[in-house]
What does this fold into?
Amino acid sequence: MLRTLLLSTLLLGASLLAQAAPQQPAIATAHPAATAAAQQMLDAGGNAFDAAVAASAALAVVEPYGSGIGGGGFFLLRSGGETPTYDFLDARERAPLEAKADLYVRDGKVQRELSLNGALAAAIPGLPAALVELAEKHGRLPLKTSLEPAIRLANEGFAVDRIYRERATWRLAALRDDPESARLFLDQGEVPAEGFLLRQPELATTLQALAEHGRAGFYGGELGKRLIAGVRKAGGIWNNDDLAEYRVQQRTPLRFPLEDGRELISAPPPSAGGIALAQSLAILGQLPWREADPVQRVHYVVEALRRAYRDRGLLGDPDFVKNPVEQLLSPGHLAVLAGSIDPERATPSASLPPAGAWHEGDHTTHFAVLDAEGNAVAATLSINLPFGAAFTVPGTGVLLNDEMDDFAADVQGANAYGLTGSQANSIAGGKRPLSSMSPSFIESNDEFAAFGTPGGSRIPSMVLLSMLEYLDDQPIARWPAVARYHHQFLPDVIEHEPDTFSAEQVAALQKRGHALKPLERQYGNQQVLFWNKASGEVQAASDPRGIGTATP
It folds into this structure.
């Protein structure tokens, strides 16, 4: 009898475990070549972490406007099993050790151009170290195997597409100003035609060095010397210690309980995005947003975002400043925020206590991978503005980021507005700038979903709108496709994509006291996954605004 009961229990456990396993892997990336690279690793016996290395490196080749080996990013990891565990790899770029708070001040005024273009705008890249970390500590395949698709893409080239042409057009003048960038990313000084085969043999060599020698292949040796010499010759301030001391930081993911037994797992500081998402979802959880008509729902969402973004100015690099995360997510604080919302009228941002101001590059990239064992990665990568600093270190193929522009370069100016929170994000040597990148999971006993997008300061609002579609039981194709609107406390205006609102809805929102600003084009490029644990069914969706692909 005992033996029969034990056998039945084991069979039931095996059955439940089988039900919980995904039926097949799922991948969603911003470019078909990256999706194919990730799938190649899974087909070769790798896991989601190997696929993430391959996708990241492939995107570094085919999306130089969104990410790259000269940039960084955040990786949210889920290790599968009956009781999953989560990790967060902070591969955000670091300020050079010689950087000071007044780095971009000339004659008493901040010269923002210096933090946008050229070698002085570049922070120390984190993506190469992250790829090594993922492969060595989480993956199954050698780094050399995972980087092979990207090396092949760099050597053989890829066809320029409409997104590449659009982003290159935006940064054409800056790309022309740097001879190496112009040689690599333009065609005789002009934006390449669609279908133009763009090869990057120097980048292939750099990726090969990383594949063969690990972190020493990028942060040391001949390549490290060449990077430092090239940056300093062009007016930058990198030194040997900058590369030698760079490390990926393993941080504890932000975890926040939601309704119906769900949990938000998201990015902690130096991302402000995870906290903004947790606050927004918690505030909305105290409001009847599901039952509201479309205008009322927009009002609730905007008022939640207004309050969540207001708190952003208190945050910074946790290695340098103490972040008041517990206070910002405390039930009392969230209840006060929700209670301060007038269901009929917009709350003027000027009537709320001020917080720090910021600006942030809009054009990053995001992907998500889930393997058949329940391992998952949601990663948001960036070089800040399209094509970063538009400066490529000669002979390396490494296009550098301009993430230094994400720091609060003008602390005095911020203080003139009472924005003392910006001190937390001031420039300091070795510091990581605050970011909105928000790779996120929502998980319960029954379901798992992954979210993320590029988009600078608009990232949390985009991810929130996608999450609300999920929580409202909408089909996965709607999550990344939903029409977008955004409010970030200051400026006190609802930015929105063209045709998001009807004329009647605009009038109704204005009557409530909202100011609206239609944008000229759509924005963001979200990639999402869903896993129904009861059936094992998995789904993925790629933003219809981009050229990405999703499988299955």
Notes: The CA atoms of residues 208 and 538 lie 34 Å apart.
